[in-house]
Every structure is written in C-alpha cells, then in structure tokens.
C-alpha cells in the first residue's frame, strides 16, 4: 500500500498518531474526527495513500465505497437520536479539502440546528435546456474518451 511519510492520515493508519478507531480492515480505517462537528462524526480513510477522488482506480473505489454504508449504519444504530447523515468527500483546496489523503466525512444529523449545514445555491435561472445539454455533452465526451 502506498504510504506518504508526511501525511497525517498515513501516520494514523500506521498507528504513529493515536486515533479513536470505530472500524478497521485491510482496506480502510474509520476513526472519529477530532472536530466532532456532531457526535459520532467519523472519517473513513483508504489505507492506500491517494490524494483525492481523482486518484482512485475502479478497484479501490469499489472497495472503499462498499464499506461506507456498513459504517454509516453502525453510526446511526449507535444513537437513536440520529435522524440523518451527511456523507461528504472534499476534493481540492477550493472544495475545502484540508488533508490531501482522500477521506469521507460521515456526519450524523440530529436536527436541522445541530451545528452543521450545507448551502446549495439555486442557479437554475442561468441554465436553459440547451445550456444544460452543452454541459452534459462535454462531460459525456470525457466519459467516452476512457
């Protein structure tokens, strides 16, 4: 497995830095985020050092993603007050990625005033059906290029 000696998550995976582990196997390590945005806030980290989602191959993606529902269900089952969950993966500095080892935030939700929120801007007025089709065509062309 790839390891980066300067990466805090690689150090956590290698137990060089302590963490509060909730799940671990040969592919991922899941541990409580120190910030605890809400109680139970867990990070799921692949044991292979990959910077972001763009560095995954299909096999690693399948292995990591297949474990997320199991961990999410365990978090939800651990507290009857949990009524939802945000699963977030930030990629790149502009997307608020602060540790450049891919990771998924599983953030339990207790209410709409539990200290966490997302804001999606509605830009629908700026997109005609034709403009949406142009954007979709550019993306599809890249998918077909692989």
List keywords for this structure.
alpha+beta; HIT family, subunit A; Histidine_triad_HIT; 146 residues; Diadenosine polyphosphate hydrolase; 3 helices; hydrolase
Descriptive report:
This protein is an alpha+beta fold and 146 residues long. The chain has one domain: HIT family, subunit A (2-Layer Sandwich). It has three helices and five strands; from the N terminus they run H-E-E-E-H-E-E-H. Strand 1 and strand 2 form a beta hairpin.
What's the gist of this structure?
The protein has 146 residues and is α+β, with helices and mostly antiparallel strands. The chain has helices at 8-13, 58-77, 129-145; strands at residues 21-24, 28-32, 42-46, 84-88, 104-109.
As for the number of domains, it is 1
In the CATH hierarchy, what is the class?
Answer: Alpha Beta
**CATH architecture name:** 2-Layer Sandwich
Number of strands: 5
Query: DSSP helix count?
Result: 3
- Strand order of the main beta sheet, please? 1-2-3-5-4
Strand content: 15-25%
The general outline is globular
How far apart are the first and last residues' alpha carbons, in Å? 25 Å
CATH superfamily: HIT-like
Overall pLDDT level: 96
In quaternary terms, these chains amount to single chain
- What is the N-to-C order of secondary-structure elements (H for helix, E for strand)? HEEEHEEH
Poorly predicted ranges (pLDDT <50, ≥5 residues)?
Answer: none
Helix content: 25-40%
CATH-defined fold name: HIT family, subunit A
Structural class of the helices, strands and pairings?
alpha+beta
Report the C-alpha radius of gyration, rounded.
Answer: 18 Å
Describe the main β-sheet briefly: 5 strands, antiparallel
Organism: Loigolactobacillus coryniformis subsp. coryniformis KCTC 3167 = DSM 20001
Keywords: Hydrolase
GO molecular function, one term: hydrolase activity
Protein name: Diadenosine polyphosphate hydrolase
